[in-house]
Write a structure and sequence with these properties.
Strand 1, helix 1 and strand 2 form a beta-alpha-beta unit. This protein has a single domain, classed as Response regulator (Rossmann fold). The chain is α/β, with parallel strands linked by helices. The chain contains 3 helices and 3 strands.
């Protein structure tokens, strides 16, 4: 994002592969989105819980197979805690 531009939205990218997160982040930022990264489902949950307003996320993009808390488990948590997540 360049100074003075408004974001098209906020996206949480969750993947245990740093290179995948980097490529996705760079692509989304180039397209005009703000990106938050997490390396696994557990960190994604922590990011959501620690954020100023977790409902300001527009999209959660997650890998399925990850250590600690996989993508499906993370999505189940998000749906339970934040019913507007679908």
């Amino acid at each position: 994002m360049f100074s003075g531009q408004t974001s098209l939205g906020r996206i949480l990218v969750v993947d245990d592969e740093p290179d995948v997160r980097k490529v996705v982040r760079l692509s989304l930022e180039k397209a005009g989105y703000d990106v938050i990264e997490a390396e696994d489902g557990q960190q994604a949950v922590q990011e959501i819980k620690s954020g100023e307003n977790p409902l300001l996320l527009d999209v959660i993009l997650t890998d399925i197979r990850m250590p600690k808390l996989n993508g499906l488990e993370a999505i189940q948590f998000f749906q339970k805690e934040f019913p507007r997540v679908s």
